[in-house]
Design a protein that fits this description.
Blueprint: H1 12-20, E1 24-25, E2 36-37, H2 58-63, H3 67-90, E3 101-102, H4 126-141, E4 151-152, E5 171-172, H5 176-183, H6 185-192, E6 198-201, E7 205-206, E8 209-210, H7 215-225, E9 231-234, H8 238-244, H9 252-262, H10 275-280, H11 286-302, H12 325-338, E10 340-344, E11 357-361, H13 369-372, H14 385-392, E12 398-402, E13 415-416, E14 422-425, E15 431-433, E16 435-440, E17 451-455, E18 459-463, E19 476-484, E20 490-499, E21 501-506, E22 509-514, E23 525-530, E24 536-544, E25 549-556, H15 562-571, E26 575-581, E27 594-595, E28 598-599, E29 602-603, H16 610-620, E30 626-631, H17 639-644, E31 647-650, H18 658-666, H19 699-702, E32 720-727, E33 737-745, E34 751-761, E35 774-783, E36 788-795, E37 802-803, E38 809-810, E39 814-821, E40 834-841
Parallel strand pairs: 3-4, 5-7, 6-9, 11-12, 11-26, 26-30, 30-31
Antiparallel strand pairs: 1-2, 7-8, 10-31, 13-25, 14-15, 14-19, 16-17, 16-19, 18-25, 19-24, 20-23, 20-25, 21-22, 21-24, 27-28, 28-29, 32-33, 33-36, 34-35, 34-39, 37-38, 39-40
Helix pairs in contact: 1-11, 3-4, 3-12, 4-6, 8-9, 12-18, 14-18
Length: 842
Amino acid sequence: LYSASGKELFSSRLMVLLLTMSYNNQEITRLNIPAYGWWNEALHGVAFSGRATVFPQPIGLAASWNKELLFNIGDAISDEARAKHHEFVRQEKRNNFQGLTYWAPNINIFRDPRWGRGIETYGEDPYLTGRMGVHFIKGLQGDDEKYFKLIATPKHYAVHSGPEPERHRFNAVASDKDLYETYLPHFREAIQEGGAYSIMSAYNRFNGESCSAHPRLLNEILREEWGFEGVVVSDCGAVRDIFEYHKIVDSKEEAAAIALVSGCDLNCGDYYQFLSGALEQNLITEEDIDVGLRRILLARFKLGMFDPEVEVPYASIPMETVNSKENQALALLAAKESLVLLKNDDELLPISDEIKNIAVIGPNANDIDVLLGNYNGRPFNITTPYQGIKNRAPEGVVVNYAPGTDLAKGVYMIEDLPDTFLFTTDSDGNRVQGLTGEYYNNKEWKGQPVTTQVDPSIKFDWQDGSAIKGMPNDDFSIRWSGKIKVPSSGTYKLGGEGHHGYKLYINDSLHVSDNAFYHINAKRIKEIQLEADTEYDIKIDYFAYSGDANFRLVWVPNDRQLEKDALELAEKSDMVIMIMGLSPRLEGEELGIYLDGFAGGDRSKLHLPQNQIDLIRNISSTGKPIVLVLLNGSALALNWENENIPAIVDAWYPGQAAGEAIASLLFGDYNPSGRLPITFYKSVKDLPPFEDYAMTNRTYRYFQGDPLYPFGYGLSFTQFKYGNFIIEDAAQLGDTVKLSVEITNIGDRDGSEVTQVYVTNNREDVDSDQPLRSLKAFEKTYLKAGETKTIHFKLTPDKFGFYDSEGAFNIEPGNFKITIGGGQPGYHNPTTETISTEVDIL
């Protein structure tokens, strides 16, 4: 590198830095270091890398309360990731979403149900989050003594949970007590017990300092206290935010410098290019650079990237493992275990044999996107709830479907645009149906097309294949052009849907654009006035980033009668199954959508969209028995529904096996065992301001009010009874307290129970802001009808400790209430019970 005067400034070693410390590592030929893209995602399956097995969204996985299931899912995901990576390497592809460093899991605490990205987490409790996260990480990283299978990256460290629209400039303020009691325990477990070799810093500031340049978080706590030796990577663009949005420093060079010196090794973004200037300005030294560079290269060594594949045990995993029968079965099991039965009055479920005509109604009943959540792959096979119910219904039972309403006001039920609206001119000058497609072997429509052809229909799903022979499957573009003519004048809703991005023009004016590679765009449809028998120019510029490319033209018909059709269908049916809820189009990461109840990915209200509420009430007025199945990633205030709908199931975003799993519960093939990983509140008015990071009156541990459904709650089709609760050893300060309890399945169905152990510190002299109770242990146990099992727990001394107002941890003598059973103490559950006792720790 040379200065403006031509003087040589830096050694060739610095060139290695600049090529290696950004997430898009460039090839360094003279050192035999191949190119490498660090960015990969695997929250619930390999994402953005073509077809893969898609498991339930993490909030649904948390509802399983099954640690071993999380390990098995992590193991299956890493199998598929390894198989894909080595196939990419064989094709000489080393880009992002083709590597072995995965930025998962998201273990932020879902402290407030309004946070849109809470759907990616394991819920509101640090202990549950820690257990799920540790097992998932171990499944991802493998158990080989020399090599990592993958490298896991828990995120976003730390004190990060919204608001989404402000995350690049927001300052989260929290006490040391809340920091150590709520925001850090699960991160510590992920590093010290899970062995995660990477961690991602957050966008926001914490107590005034950027989380990506925070000496206390990144060095004092992470490396010095916890002994972390791996790679810290910034969230994408977070180092840029230090200068541009947080305005902590006065230059780009200072932003890069303070991030590096504070312990951020790898920049997802482009700001580490300014480290050269920082070095020239003496803001950093080459020794500072060497520290991060050493960690980055060592991580790649530990993945076996510089060793012969025959020496790396994971390099031989075949591509046949991707969506193998075993992984499909695991996805189905995970979807089943994520289901939470919230209400079942008069045992409406399982569905009676007397039901012969079922109406499936709702905007989520037959939609694929809602099943996949976010940060998702694309499955080979998927069943919607409607399809699953129709497939499972006994012979002779009629199942019909009607959407009933849009997802929300302004987020429409879309359909394929009729092919007859489109026409073009073929190579012979004839007017034909369709559009002319020009196919390019790059993402930018550069050079001459590989081919030009007439496509009679704009409905494509290339899966992992190429659009046409001779084109790459992950780096191409298409330009379609022609005419559109509609049969009648009016205001049309017109747009497109596809991975990964497109722009749609009418008469050379941009009508709508979307980059759906990263997020689903709820506003892919826009209104446009079109006149009958008038020809309009139409052009679509589509581009593909990676495998799993697809695109279709969509519209909203003008003559819809959604609610009328649904009411007529309900009247003719014996039972109505309403598939309602939210969608990743409404809640998620930094979404550009602002509607009633939704703000930039976050929520401002907790109830369902008003149009869905209206439909539920109108269908209820028919007098038909209703089962309400919810697809959502966050808590819902279902006050009226809880009072008036006899059966309610929360299915979250259940992945590729959604329909089969939901149907298995509804028809009684599967006995639900899911439990809530979050509190369902009655109103947003029960909560402190969203921007307040103090834990007071948040989550089950501190909430003083009466929840709609408590954390840990869920019903079964059988009943469990607890007895013979024994504290086996005398409780001396510093001793492990051993517990045992007998569980009996006293019902007539086999089923699984989640036994939960909560501890309350009864000492009056402890700070008043101590948790009301805290989960300290849990176990999921399968029992046949009539079977009794004894469950054992060990509560180590730290389970009885507490944090004082300064954040110091104390283990002192006192009186403690221990509750064991199927939920929290003090809440009624007709299918299980709890037992409480007090113990003195002397």
